[in-house]
Amino acid sequence: MDWKDHIIASDNYHPQAQVFSVYANESFLVTLANKGLYKRALKDLESTQHIELKGDSPLQVQLDDITVTLNENVSQSTCTCPSKTICKHVLMAILVTAGYSAEKPSETSQENMAKNSTKDEKQAHEEPWKSLKEVDIAALRKQAGKKLFEDTLRLIQDGWTADFKESEMLEATINTENIIVYFPSQDSINRSVCKCGEQGLCKHKLIAILSYLSDQGLLNNNSEDTTTLSLLNDESRAILEAAGKFVIHIFDKGIINCGENESETAIQFSIRLETCGIGNLSRLFRSLSSDLENMLSKHVGFNQITTFSTLSRLHNTIQLILRNLHDNQKLGLLIESTRSDYYTTPLGNFTGLGAFPWQTRSGYFGITAYFFYHEKQVICTFTTSLAGYYEQTEELATIDNLSRQFTKNTHWADSHSLAVLSQSTFTLRNFKLNKQYRLSSSAQTQCEITGKVDRGTLQNLQSIRQLFELTEFSEESYQYFSKRPPDQIILVPFQKLSDVYFSHTKQKLLFNIEQIDETSIKASLDFNPFTKNAIKYLERIGDFPDNKSHYMVFLKRKDGLIPVSIVDDNGMNNFFFKQ
User: For labelling, which of 12, 196, 228, 411 has a CA lying 20 to 30 Å from the CA of 531?
Assistant: First the structure.
């Protein structure tokens, strides 16, 4: 028995049903709910005994003893069953309206349709997606909220866009997350449906709306006569103007004459700019504060040239931002957000390449583990960090504490340690990654350890050319406003270390990597409290080589190769940490 032949309707409901029949396609209904619920709706519809359309506005669909009230904003449709979200009955009701609309109405029904067609004809002749094209950006910003709207603008500047497919509905696919947003042709924004499940505006809907406006040529960053967008609001501009005056004050006063007030003010600007989402200036002000503190305490870490460089960069960046407030292309180059948005990936396979402790001039310290992501053939990082400029955390910036953090089983749903992850091959499910290939510590991520990294594991990676290229850094011109490039990892097969000695004048360990073909590669490691144990280890294996085949994992930086770990037939040695 075909349920479409047994739909009861006491009146002509074709005009109302047609409003909802456009939603009756699998892709949309799966987005509205999920695949399992859609399949269940199809199955249960076949066994439903009583199907009746009733009511006028709103349209109701009775399914046996359940009544669904369909809202023109379909995601707000309701049902008499206990479910608090979109249930199978709503999906069934939408499918029923499509089945009913497909039937040819009777002559009486056609006459009634003609009498009541004025409103429908008006809607039919209204330009599709008119409300989307004529959206008020100021009202959209207010509806979304300051933080969500500005975060979304930065995502767009980072390359998040939507691809569009136009049919009965406008289908927008967010290219970085493979999430679909649907816009009905009428009242498009209010009736939009996103796969993420948000009822109101979400980042995906905002990206789709702004991308559509841009594709239609309805956005203009430079003209006041058209819709304009800016990454900055009045509050952010006021903070930038005050920060610019503070930097000029230091130039006028002279760095040497600055005191604790200037150091504290720099920290305050750092916090305020981080709140505004301007991460690069926030970090520069934090570095300035640390430099001034080092100068006041006559610390060896103070360098007047570096401090002057920080001040110059602050001044020039702030002035350029203020001169280009409505040029989002330039603002996107001048402003770096405090964080990068993460997107979920269902499955990935990784090979651990070791871990490295670090500390920045701006007061942060932590551990970064490096992994090769096989599906994308890139290096991913996973970092734990702390701010060391607070009294309660300053004493934690030691290698002993980092070693304890290194062995703690606290990461992902399976509670693995960085010590295990950094020297293992593993599979991640439902993991989060951002555009800089940084892995999130999401508790939703499932991790399955699949093996131990040894020399054979790295030999199997030799077809990945970028992991073994030892080309010199090119002497490129200094890119003043360029963002910090991601870490590069190099794998070097070797037999032994030679010419291992510690330079007291340079305060660094210098050594050569002797390869199997008798070529030699220079490397070094700066001395600091985090590298003391690693330097002793490298000196020891330099004095007593075993002449076996090894791999050394290096960070490739402009000042040379920095060792991270050593891998041999027995596995990996993360020699920075006590284990």
Answer: 411
pLDDT, tens digit (0-9, with 9 covering 90-100), for 19-75: 888 898 888 998 888 889 999 999 999 888 899 998 777 889 999 999 999 988 888
Helix, coil or strand: residue 197? coil
Positive or negative: CA dihedral 155, 156, 158, 159: positive
Distances (CA, A) of 313 to 4, 142, 555: 70, 33, 26
pLDDT in tens, 332-346: 778 876 666 677 788
Q: How far apart are CA 455 and CA 579, in angstroms?
A: 21
pLDDT digits (tens, 9 = 90+) for 52-65: 998 777 889 999 99
Q: Which one, of 450, 415, 446, lies nearest residue 432 by Cα?
A: 446
* Closest-CA residue to 569 (of 553, 554, 551): 551
Instruction: State whether the Cα torsion 83-87-90-93 is positive or negative.
Output: negative
CA 17 to chain centre: 41
Answer yes or no: are the C-beta atoms of 463 and 493 closer than 8 Å.
no
User: For residues 328 and 343, what is the distance between their CA atoms, to the nearest angstrom?
Assistant: 23
pTM of the model: 0.59
pLDDT tens for 86-105 read 899 999 999 999 888 877 66
Please state, as a whole number, how many other Cβ atoms lie within 10 Å of the Cβ of residue 304.
11
Q: Residue 305, Cα to own-chain centre: how many angstroms?
A: 35
